[in-house]
């Protein structure tokens, strides 16, 4: 009986030892993965939902351009033509009589060339810059690639939470943002003709400005006038370039959940800072097509500003061996909006909804 018991004990001991060895190998493998308490990573990031805009398009050469050029009558009303005004009741109020019998005394003109002595008429021009946007926007011409260096400092491990690791994460990054381009717009003018209500050749001198109240004997025009057909008169070209070097810094806690000895999920969030080193240049040119004369304006400058906000990051890590690993994930960052006036043109860089797709390599020690 003792011999029989001895014979069974040999294989049973082997099974127990074998099981213990396998379990030890699993524990060894897992403890090797969890053995490192620090990790550095170098990642390539690609930024999404980052855009810039220029405001104040046309402030240089279109300021006061168009109907009236910003001028007002002696009664304080806005000119409704680029070379004069007529109280026609549509674009400018009627005179005090309500344009009685189809005549208005509320009118004025600038140039002698506006009067046609043969037809006894006055010609008024209306140039409109409507359709030209007050701002232009765009995304980075080459996308938003960036680089980031990250250091994870492990503070502890929750053994009873499946070896959950936690610690502090510090990162620095760099991104280049560029936007530029040309925008060309056509400007049209219309020519309206009004019959002079006086005797041919007895028109008032150029620069005449009639009053809304009028006086007996004041020269009058017949209203309404004959509207003209719009024709191309000017070309407006706006050119702008914006470049920003963005140096970033992140600091916040992290937790990392290992699924096995190869895969883990890394979540972090906290403070984000961004140093914006920006440079912008712009130029505008207005060309009158009738004689090719041009009016130009330009500006630019350089500026630096520190923005702050927050970030949230989620990565999936794969451990190649004890030291080296790879990671891929997504990061959301809100640094707000950068804004600066570059010599008459306001540039804005929106970093409030930045999204980064990132992939990198890590070293644990």
Q: Can you list the strand order of the major beta sheet?
A: 1-9-10-12-13-14-15-18
Helix content range of the residues, please?
A: under 10%
From the alpha-carbon coordinates, what is the Rg to the nearest angstrom? 38 Å
Count of all domains: 1
Give the overall silhouette. rod-shaped
* Number of helices in the DSSP assignment: 1
Proportion of residues in extended strands: over 45%
Sequence stretches where pLDDT stays below 50 over 5 or more residues: 1-31
Q: How many beta-strand runs? A: 18
Mean pLDDT: 86
Helix and strand pattern = HEEEEEEEEEEEEEEEEEE
Q: What structural class should be given to the helix and strand makeup? A: mainly beta
Q: What is the CA-CA span between the terminal residues? A: 57 Å
How would you characterize the largest beta sheet? 8 strands, antiparallel, barrel
Can you put this structure into words, describing what you see?
The protein is mostly beta strands. The longest helix is centred in the first third of the chain and has 34 residues. The radius of gyration is 38 Å and the shape is rod-shaped. The two termini are 57 Å apart. 9% of the residues lie in helices and 55% in strands. The N terminus is likely disordered. The protein has one helix and 18 strands. The strands form four sheets. An eight-stranded antiparallel barrel has the order 1-9-10-12-13-14-15-18. A four-stranded antiparallel sheet has the order 8-2-17-16, with no helix packed on it. The protein has a two-stranded antiparallel ribbon with strand order 3-5. The chain has one domain. A hairpin with a 4-residue loop joins strand 13 and strand 14.
């Amino acid at each position: 009986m003792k011999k029989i018991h001895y014979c069974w004990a040999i294989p049973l001991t082997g099974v127990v030892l074998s099981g213990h060895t396998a379990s030890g190998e699993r524990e060894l493998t897992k403890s090797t993965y969890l053995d490192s308490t620090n990790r550095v990573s170098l990642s390539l990031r690609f930024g999404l939902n980052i855009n810039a805009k220029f405001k104040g398009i046309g402030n240089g050469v279109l300021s006061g351009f168009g109907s009236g050029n910003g001028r007002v009558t002696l009664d304080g009303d806005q000119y409704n033509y680029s070379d004069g005004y007529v109280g026609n009741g549509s674009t400018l109020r009627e005179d005090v009589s309500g344009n009685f019998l189809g005549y208005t005394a509320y009118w004025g003109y600038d140039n002698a060339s506006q009067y046609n002595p043969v037809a006894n008429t006055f010609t008024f021009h209306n140039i409109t810059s409507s359709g030209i946007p007050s701002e232009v926007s765009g995304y980075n011409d080459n996308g938003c690639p960036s680089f980031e260096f990250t250091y994870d400092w492990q503070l502890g491990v929750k053994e009873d939470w499946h070896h959950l690791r936690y610690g502090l994460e510090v990162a620095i990054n760099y991104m280049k943002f560029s936007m530029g381009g040309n925008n060309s717009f056509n400007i049209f003018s219309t020519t309206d003709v009004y019959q002079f209500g006086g005797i041919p050749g007895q028109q008032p001198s150029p620069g005449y400005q009639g009053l809304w109240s009028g006086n007996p004997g004041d020269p009058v025009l017949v209203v309404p006038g004959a509207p003209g057909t719009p024709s191309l008169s000017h070309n407006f070209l706006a050119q702008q370039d914006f470049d920003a070097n963005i140096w970033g810094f992140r600091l916040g806690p992290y937790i990392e959940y290992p699924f096995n000895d190869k895969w883990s999920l890394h979540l972090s969030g906290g403070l984000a800072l961004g140093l914006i080193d920006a440079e912008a240049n712009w130029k505008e040119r207005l060309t009158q097509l009738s004689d090719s004369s041009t009016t130009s304006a330009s500006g630019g400058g350089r500026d630096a500003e520190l923005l702050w906000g927050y970030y949230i990051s989620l990565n999936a890590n794969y451990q190649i061996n004890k030291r080296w690993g790879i990671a891929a994930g997504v990061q959301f960052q809100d640094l707000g909006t950068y804004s600066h006036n570059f010599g008459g043109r306001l540039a804005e860089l929106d970093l409030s909804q930045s999204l980064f797709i990132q992939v990198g390599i890590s070293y644990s020690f």
